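Model it.
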Amino acid sequence: MRKESIEEKIIDKFFSKIDKKLTDWMANYGLLILRISLGIVFLWFGLLKFFKGLSPAEDLVRNTVYFVDPDFFLPVLAAWESLIGIGLITGKFLRVTILLLFLQMPGTALPLLILPEKVWTVFPYGLTLEGQYIVKNLVLIGAGLVIGATVRGARILSDTKNYIS
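Modeled.
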């Protein structure tokens, strides 16, 4: 077995300190940044839907929810998404906010079934731009799950030394 040189030990110790500082920083601020950035996305997309023709998802929504008057539904969806955004950004009423998020998510997947010609170039792996827009919601769902796990005070630990089970 090869013995580690002094230089390798110094480099290892130096990178170990940097790694510790970085992972501590990520553990301390990652959830906050995730919650606020997810909130910005929802608020932004929600606000766009209040203005006819401004949201790139407007036609997709209008064609997907053909069983409801889109002129009624779009402002409701806009308010819904905006409320999710405001709740995430402020951190207030997180349980209700996460509930609204998860109630909305199945509707975002409807075009995959109702409008396959709009979302698939080649089923089941070739996606149009609209299809990619929908599939990215998996990331929003994952972020919602992580944020939802914190409503009782859960936090991320950068190591397990101080973890009490």
